[in-house]
Amino acid sequence: MAMSSHLARLRTILGHELIQLPSVSVLVVDDHARLLLVRHAGSSDGWAVPGGAVDVGESPAQAAIREIREETGIQIGTPRLLDVLGGADYEVTYPNGDRVAYVTAVYRAGHTDGTPTPDHDEISELGWFTPTQLPGVDLNRFARALLRATGHLIT
User: Which end of the chain is more exposed for a tag (fewer CB within 10 A), N or C?
Assistant: First the structure.
């Protein structure tokens, strides 16, 4: 996972301690009403909603566009804010021991251009899923909570 220079400086001071970070999660929808989900490289946690941390000086909407472009290589339309979520389900412990409590701005956006391709740095695989497929998909805890909170997963 790529780390901003700002976060790297914080980690030199705080080590692996839990820190709260602003982030974005993007529900990318195609013309067939399917959602784009990703698998994180080096993780066996299941499918996830693409997104990431908001950089210093960047708006959440800008971060949403940047994260999708970096992770999947596609362009999205104007992101529409759906919700802002946080809490225990949005805490992550990374393989290196870093702990993060994310407060995530959840956006929905259409796929406008490009062929989705995993970046193979942060993302190892991606796939499109219909709403009826979602209950049977192996989702990570973060994605499951997010999709339930936004009404995309009813189980």
Answer: C
- What type of residue sits at position 74? I
pTM above 0.85, yes or no: yes
Can you tell me whether residue 79 is helix, strand or coil?
coil
Tell me if residue 64 falls in helix, strand or coil. helix
DSSP string covering 14-46: HTT--EEEEEEEEEEE-TTSPEEEEEETT--S-
> 49-66 pLDDT, tens per residue?
999 999 999 999 999 999
147, with CB counted inside 10 A (0-12, 13-18, 19+), is buried
Strands (E), the chain: 19-29, 35-40, 51-53, 75-76, 80-85, 91-93, 99-113, 123-129
Backbone angles phi and psi of 152, in degrees to 5: -90, -15
Q: What is the DSSP letter of 3?
A: -
Q: In whole angstroms, how far apart are CA 25 and each of 16, 63, 111, 121? A: 23, 9, 15, 18
